[in-house]
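Request: Give me one sample?
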Amino acid sequence: MTLGLSCALALPARAAQVALRGAWMMAPAQRTTPAQPPAVATAHALQTFNTGGLVHLPRGVNGTWVRLQPAAGTWPAGVWMLAIDQPGLGVVRLYAADQAPQQQALENLDRGVLHPPGQLVFRLENLRGDAPLWLFFQANAWLGSSMHFALRSPQAWAVQANGWLAFVTSVLTVLSVMSLMGLWFGLLLRDRAYLFYAVYVLAYALLSAVSTGYAFHPLELGWVADDPAMVARVAGGMAGAASILFATRFADLPRYLPWSRHIPQGLAGLFLGIVLLSLVPWTAARALGGWLQNPVVVLAGPSVLTLLVLAWLRGSRYAGFFLLGWSPLVILTVCDSLQSFNLLQSWTWLQRASLAAAAFEALVLIAGLADRTLAARRDHRQALHRAEVDALTGTYNRGALLRRLQNMLETETGPLSVLFVDLDHFKRLNDHAGHQAGDQALVALVRTLRLELREHDVLGRYGGEEFMVLLPGQSLSQALGVAERLLEAVRNRRLAISADLPGLTISIGAAEAQMGESMPQLLKRADQAMYAAKHNGRDQVQADPRLPARAPAG
């Protein structure tokens, strides 16, 4: 990928390149393919163009003639390669003096033809004097292109062609891998944002493969070569629609811009309309789809970018992600569409920059999706935590306690004991010092109890000033020992809220789960033991009176 990006913005090699003068004209109506270039008398209709930039040839059913001449006046001796970058789809014939005509097309899958991605190449030898080269373009009626002409030495052409091949390969590899990742995570997480992303990136990769000629050479995809214009239109329409739907969901536009809800849907509908028009067999419908494509791109790109900027200004973090990744590609795509109106013709690097921007965007957006997924999981965990934790004390709440106790009763194979802990004289504390002082006492009590419990013991607030401790692996006698430590810890901490109140104490009831016993039965016994402790004077622990405490094992 590094090699590809280094080639992306590099201009084609200028070394060992012949300066050219160019002109074009529409071919007159004729019944058969022309066998000879136009006569000198008819060449007055030629329109000159700058061969240092791009030229957009009109799409006509009769074809277009292009004349190339050496800017120096005469052709140099030796072997030269005439390269046509971005020639579009359709047949191209070359006529040179004293040489047999040559014919090529991007969609020609003949392996014996020189075909770097998106480039037609004609080998020329011993060009004569100042005799012009004539090229006849029988263009595809549905897909045009802004092209570039260059006459290079075989060595310079090989360097340029190999660099271009490495770059396009790296970009399409990145797009394909990112699309598969998006599809996998979309199915795994059932998140439509990933699926829209996958469709968008895959469709753009297919469109790029057709527009660069990579689908024909080296991939040799026969089903694309059968009707490349239709495939390109469908891929472009799907890429446009999926990108807008992805942006809407990813940046959460309905939340941040509720008034704009129908704008992205309408723009996506226009792209899907182009797809449908491209699939129907009627010539007029396909022509309409072709005419609509560039205007829709020019309209949709800035419109969606504007919505994303507004959403970002209103706090949509992922609109910022999308702007970072998508903006370069949208701007370059709009510029590429403007070239079809004979604008920005000197920007010969635009196609390479667009491909590099597509790879950059795919990487940024997959990173944004990953960040979005992690944030969603974090929010989910926090919501679960809030649903299980008592807001005041930070311990488990009653529902979470009961769920964990039920799980322990079903899974624990060893002893399991429960302690009911009640803060003594809590009502008197609230009445005398206020509810804020009562809250402080509960927080201090929890802090003290935690210091005496094991890591896997479970402490929670059962309700009011009542707490419950679950002791897995502890028999009743062991639980009574734990309870005594808790009593002593509270006494030693002297949890007093004001000087005129005695130090706070606790009363504890203990019970051990019995074979086949239900959770309500166990809780009832522990609760009765706790009330017995309070009835007998508080600041003490009482075991369930109906069951004797067992001696510790071993």
